[in-house]
Amino acid sequence: MSASEAVQAAPARRSLQPLLFGLTIVAVLVLLFGVPWWTLVVADARWPTAVLVAGTILFVGALVAFPVLMYLGHGRRQRDWAARTGDTILGVIWVMFVWALLGNVLRLVLVIAGVADPVRSRIAAAAIAAVSLLLVVWGYAEAMRVPRIKRVDVTIPRLGAGLDGVRVVLLTDTHYGPINRARWSARVVAAVNELDADIVCHTGDIADGTVSERREQAAPLGDVRARLARTYVTGNHEYFGEAEGWLDQMRELGWEPLHNRHVVVERDGCRLVVAGVDDATAASSGRPGHHADHAAALADVGPDLPVLLLAHQPKQIGAAVAHGVDLQISGHTHGGQIWPFQYLVRLDQPAVHGLSRHGDRTQLYTSRGTGFWGPPLRVFAPSEITVLTLRAAKPIEFHNHLEGPSSAAKRG
């Protein structure tokens, strides 16, 4: 191929990309809505015509409305009512899709048991509908509740004895958004203040929307109490809106925004570096001065000081290992939020939730998140307010088992 032909082929391939992307989205939506429709309404259930028609209208209507609602709710001019409706449809249809697929197991059991259609298909459809309804109701309650407190001890060998037992409370992914959760926010803060924290951290995705739109929901964060520090870093959702605005807002609320910088806290003569970096997506956001810069965040940090790093995404752990961080705390994954989405999250992140070790020194704690994004549901992925109690390594005790003449004589 000549150079001119290659130049002509490249734009042609690029012009096909939007079409292929659009076709992929259409295929995904048809599967997402089509599988539950077929399983519940059609299959071999032989429902009365009225049920078949009503069910088809419901699914087709939801399928057509969904992309429109998502565009209106999450586009440039966000409309909260559309976001609430579209997000709820997404959560409900995901639950139904998953359990429609799993319903084939029940169908197989009924085949083995000798149950014929249409009874077999009607039993399967009823079971899928009942389980989906139960999980949606329960998942909504789980999403809207004040998160449970999760307590984890983390041993940091370089931690000084004076800092042993320091309590770090982690909030992340509050996602103040289309559903006004100002009262929920106040109850979360009250729960945090009962924990008597030394350090409180927020690792990003504070809100979906501008500061002016979500100010009321974020305002209770100003009442968070901590003995040593309150620190915050940006998440990827800040870069969908106004990252600088949220950095300024958290500063006004009395928090320390760790925009590729660190603070040092001290207790009983021992020091701990609390550092933070921008989210992994900051560099591609087009905002000047925003990118994850571990070197800047840890500039002038003594080599013997333990480092606690705030970084929104678990996959930022590689740079943390390279810079000798002792503990990185992250969110972003939501623990999958709606089962079994965590298996897809795991394809993109090194951890979905919990404490993990990376390299010789570095540990990573990944929170399931304090709030939720999009669908107001949490299914088998409970939210959490995390209390990380930092522990200094206990010194190794050496016992002298050699006995001298005097000790032997005493025992004799």
Structure, described:
The chain is an alpha/beta fold. The chain is 42% helix and 16% strand. The chain is built from eleven helices and twelve strands. The strands form two sheets. The protein has a six-stranded mixed beta sheet with strand order 1-12-2-3-4-5, covered by helices on one side. A six-stranded mixed beta sheet has the order 6-7-8-9-11-10. It is elongated.
Task: List the keywords.
single chain; 412 residues; alpha/beta; Purple Acid Phosphatase, chain A, domain 2; 2 domains; 6-stranded mixed sheet; 11 helices; 12 strands; elongated
Q: Specify the CATH class of the largest domain.
A: Alpha Beta
N-to-C terminal Cα separation, in Å? Answer: 97 Å
Structural class: alpha/beta
Element pattern in H and E: HHHHEEHEHEHEEEHEHEHEEEH
Determine the strand fraction and express it as a percent band. Answer: 15-25%
State the CATH superfamily name of the largest domain. Answer: Metallo-dependent phosphatases
Proportion in helices: 40-55%
Number of helices: 11
Which SSEs are present, and which pair or pack?
Elements: H1 3-40, H2 49-74, H3 80-112, H4 119-144, E1 148-156, E2 166-171, H5 182-193, E3 199-202, H6 211-218, E4 229-232, H7 243-252, E5 256-257, E6 261-267, E7 270-276, H8 294-297, E8 307-310, H9 317-322, E9 327-330, H10 342-345, E10 354-358, E11 362-366, E12 384-392, H11 405-411
Parallel strand pairs: 1-12, 2-3, 3-4, 4-5, 7-8, 8-9, 9-11
Antiparallel strand pairs: 2-12, 6-7, 10-11
Helix pairs in contact: 1-2, 1-3, 2-3, 3-4
